[in-house]
Amino acid sequence: MGAVGAFEAKTHLSALLDRVAKGERITITRNGVPAAMLVPIQESPHRLTHEEIVEGMRELRKRVKPDTMSVREMVNEGRR
Fold first, then answer.
1. Which residue, of 7, 9, 39, 40, is most buried by count of CB atoms within 10 Å of its CB?
2. Which residue segment(s) compose the domain that 61 sits in?
3. What is the rounded CA–CA span in Å between residue 17 and residue 58?
4. Among 11, 63, 6, 9, CA closest to 33
């Protein structure tokens, strides 16, 4: 965990955000006193693979019946 002064944080915010995105926690100080902390929002979310996306689309296709459902019903079915 690093610590930077408020002026440096303001000047180098983009670089600090890059560090935080990689998992680092950074304390921002004002006159040497901790004032704030930059932390990652969450761990990296699970990203779907192409195979998982295609399989999900196939499953949706089985549930949606274009000849018997309205567009609104198809949209709602896709949200499930």
1. 9
2. 48-80
3. 39
4. 6
